[in-house]
Amino acid sequence: MSRFWSHLVSTLDPYVPGEQPRIQNLIKLNTNEHPYGPSPKVIAAIAQASDASLRLYPDPTSLALRQAIAQRESLDAEQVFVGNGSDEVLAHAFQALLKQERPLLFPDITYSFYPVYCGLYQIAHRTIALDAALAIRPEDYLHGDAGGIIFPNPNAPTGRGLALDAVERVVAGNPDVVVVIDEAYVDFGGQSATLLIDRYPNLLVVQTMSKSRSLAGLRVGFAMGHPDLIQGLDRVKNSFNSYPLDRLAQAGGVAAIEDEAYFQQTRHAVMQTRDGLVEGLGALGFDVLPSLANFVFASHPRRPAEEIAAALRERGVIVRHFRHPRISNYLRITVGTDQQCGQLVAACAEILA
Ligand SMILES: *Cc1c(COP(=O)(O)O)cnc(C)c1O
């Protein structure tokens, strides 16, 4: 608290990101980073862009990157917005599209940044409880009283996914408000709502290069939707920061989109490791929610999750634990390499013995 803070700043309850430990050699399974590096072509493109042209401002419209994304998704560049990580894209969507008179709806258990943006932008909101199996029920979002709707698909931190027809029911059932689908994890087995964009002008699909393209450190996120929605985001972006993506991020982002083979290979490797991780945890008695993400959400009937997390840390493995009462007995475990997941399962076996 400081007398120099604005009133708004004194009311904020900011997001707390997962720990980035300074200790070396920890097995870091707490922030859903990709276990393999980005495409070598991304590294090469960034190296090539690292020259005297850095004295010049980057393209404020990130046109080459938007065109690359548009081409891959069979969209036009006017249907694509890019930002400094999808967190920034989401923040702009909250301010440009989801701040309405009626409340914004999102699940009670979901990405914990959503209520933070509501605080920052003073957005009325209401949470909708997940069902007993921690799944989103589409019919809960069809009462016609929403000012906007946002949820991740697959949801975080549960990893559960909704089929495309269920997402479409929510979008079609709320034609007068914007529905944002946050697809941070969709490339690990989910169904993307991008296929619906040309039919629903109220749909905004947000994706990121942080997870499935192994570029959390580059900060590239994007949104796809009707040009009117994209223009709304642009108005906020151009009232905030003209150059959210630097030259290196734009060059690396284009190369990441263009290396489809590497993307396919590495996302499938993560999905395969996930199957083994689910099996290993299941054999130790963990209940593991069905995951379509690069993490699993697991609880053990005999040991509190918080205790297991602390014991794992003593053994050099970090995972994420949330204090929210409905999920306080779950651990969110990022899918690492086969070796990292093997070490995690071995450590759990030791802890539970
Ligand atoms: C990781 C994550 C994001 C944000 O990722 P960026 O690194 O900012 O692109 C957005 N939504 C969800 C649900 C996430 O898990």
Describe this protein's structure.
With 353 residues, this protein is α/β, with parallel strands linked by helices. It has two domains: 23-37 and 261-352, Alpha-Beta Complex (Aspartate Aminotransferase, domain 1); 40-258, Aspartate Aminotransferase, domain 2 (3-Layer(aba) Sandwich), CATH 3.40.640.10. The protein has helices at residues 7-11, 40-49, 63-72, 85-98, 113-121, 164-172, 227-237, 247-258, 260-283, 305-314, 338-352; strands at residues 27-28, 80-83, 104-107, 125-128, 148-152, 179-182, 203-208, 221-225, 287-288, 295-299, 317-318, 320-321, 331-334. The strands form three sheets. The protein has a seven-stranded mixed β-sheet with strand order 2-8-7-6-5-3-4, with helices on both faces. The protein has a four-stranded antiparallel β-sheet with strand order 9-10-13-12. The longest helix has 24 residues, at 260-283. The radius of gyration is 20 Å and the shape is globular. The site of pyridoxal-5'-phosphate has 12 residues, from helix 4.
Total count of domains: 2
Q: What is the radius of gyration?
A: 20 Å
Estimate the helix proportion, in percent.
Answer: 25-40%
Largest sheet, in brief, is: 7 strands, mixed
Order of strands side by side in the largest beta sheet?
2-8-7-6-5-3-4
| Distance between the amino and carboxyl termini | 46 Å
Number of strands: 13
Task: Please give the count of helices.
Answer: 11
Average pLDDT score: 97
Structural class: alpha/beta
Under the CATH scheme, which class of the largest domain? Alpha Beta
Strand content: 5-15%
- What sort of overall outline do the alpha carbons produce when their principal axes are compared? globular
List low-confidence stretches: none
- Which hetero compounds are present in the coordinates? pyridoxal-5'-phosphate
The CATH architecture name of the largest domain reads: 3-Layer(aba) Sandwich
**SSE order, as H and E?**
HEHHEHEHEEHEEEHHHEEHEEEH
CATH topology of the largest domain: Aspartate Aminotransferase, domain 2
Relevant CATH superfamily of the largest domain: Type I PLP-dependent aspartate aminotransferase-like (Major domain)
